[in-house]
Design brief:
The structure holds two protein chains of two kinds. In chain A, 48% of the residues lie in helices and 16% in strands. Chain A is an alpha/beta fold. In chain A, β1, α2 and β2 form a beta-alpha-beta unit. Chain A is globular, with a radius of gyration of 21 Å. The termini of chain A are far apart. The relative contact order of chain A is 0.13. By secondary structure, chain B is mainly alpha-helical. Helix content of chain B is 77%, strand content 2%. Chain B is built from five helices and one strand; from the N terminus they run ααααβα. Chain B is flat and about 85 Å long. The relative contact order of chain B is 0.04. The mean pLDDT of chain B is 89. Classes of the chains: A alpha/beta, B mainly alpha. Chains A and B meet through α2, α3, β6, α6 and β9 of A and α4, β1 and α5 of B. β6 of chain A pairs parallel with β1 of chain B.
């Protein structure tokens, strides 16, 4: 009789252990938000790369393309990609005209079925090969946000001249001194967020452009969210066409001062 | 009456404290005014501390010294970071190769470039 009782408890013990070991990994899904404007050339390439690396990693995913009424036919290409890869993988959420990044994220998230959101640029400066690394990093310590950094570890840039590097490092230094954000790359926009974290942050943030990206991290720190970092390589093929001018620098400093005074 | 109003004001103070977070600007202003007060006390002998002359000679130019030191530190750090900024040559090459591969594969799937 004693033998039977211990056997029963042993069986119950195994069941408890098994249910604790069953990780939620099977239900994790990653929604990639791709805001596009005039990315007819790059869109198929970035989608191909995303499909390649996600398929290899075995994670569940979807790609949400938010096109702001591009005049160059980006939306047609997006529809073609949806035909090739299927509407489960490619979701189209187009908009009438260029309306800004924050609203693009909100618009994209409304129909996102993932519990994680990945934001990135669609111009091939951000390489999808880093996404499995983001995912691994997030699972390591349960980070609320994982941010790609160009400034630390093996992170780096291709296609920047000395002037651009100087401005970039100088601006980052001033930002570190004034805001003490706890992360090395504040203006980067290649990130993995838990969906509810991104929703909460977008509600709270008021800036535009890349100051918006800075504000998200600063507010995340304020709200007590954890941020992990993964070094990334940023391949800039656009810089040659659009130099970083005085206007951009001035608006960056204005945005920085606003964050300094309000956070 | 006094006791009750005391309790109420303490309650409000606690609520205020729990929702109050200083902005970075306020932290800086607080820090700078603290340093300013300490420096003034020492330099202008506001509290009759009778500090010896050697310490006074170091104390009064200290803010300028610190500012210059910080300036030099900043230049050194930014200079170092620019010099060691990683150039991702291999990443750029790999991207070029993958672009070609992607174009070939997508053409097979029916996309025309």
């Amino acid at each position: 009789m004693i033998y039977c009782r211990t056997d029963f408890l042993h069986g119950v013990g195994i069941d408890i252990m098994a249910s604790q070991m069953k990780t939620p990994k099977d239900s994790d899904k990653y929604s990639v938000l791709l805001p596009t404007y005039n990315e007819r050339e790059n869109l198929p390439l970035i989608v191909w790369l995303l499909v390649k690396y996600f398929s290899e990693s075995g994670n569940k995913y979807e790609i949400i393309i938010i096109d702001d009424g591009s005049p160059d036919g980006t939306q047609d290409i997006a529809e073609h990609m949806q035909k090739i890869y299927g509407p489960d993988i490619i979701l189209l959420r187009p908009r009438e005209k260029k309306l800004g990044l924050g609203t693009a994220y909100i618009h994209g998230m409304q129909h996102a079925s993932g519990n994680f959101i990945i934001i990135m640029d669609a111009d091939l400066s951000h390489h999808p090969k880093f996404i499995p690394q983001f995912i691994r990093k997030q699972k390591e310590s349960g980070y609320d946000i994982v941010s790609g950094t160009r400034y630390s570890g093996s992170g780096g840039v291709y296609g920047w001249d000395l002037r651009r590097k100087l401005i970039s490092r100088g601006a980052n230094f001033i930002t570190q001194v004034l805001l003490r954000p706890g992360t090395s790359d504040l203006t980067g926009s290649f990130r993995l967020y838990k969906k509810e974290v991104l929703q909460k942050l977008i509600e709270k943030c008021v800036s535009k452009g890349y100051v918006f990206q800075m504000e998200m991290i600063v507010r995340a720190k304020q709200l007590g969210y954890s941020v992990g970092e993964v070094p990334i390589s940023f391949v800039d093929r656009v810089y040659g066409e659009s130099k970083l001018g005085g206007n951009e620098i001035v608006s960056f400093l204005k945005g920085l001062m606003t964050l300094f005074a309000t956070t | 009456m006094l006791f009750v109003s005391g309790i109420i004001s303490i309650r409000f103070f606690h609520i205020f404290l729990s929702t109050f977070t200083m902005t970075k600007l306020m932290e800086w202003l607080l820090g700078l005014s603290l340093i300013g007060v300490l420096w003034s006390i020492v330099t202008f002998d506001l509290l009759d501390l009778r500090i010896s002359d050697q310490y006074l000679q170091v104390a009064w130019p200290l803010p300028i010294y610190l500012l210059v030191a910080f300036g030099c530190y900043s230049l050194a750090v930014v200079g170092y970071r620019v010099a060691t900024f990683n150039d991702c040559e291999t990443a750029a090459k790999e991207l070029q190769e993958q672009i070609q591969e992607a174009k070939r594969d997508l053409q097979k799937k029916g996309l025309h470039f």
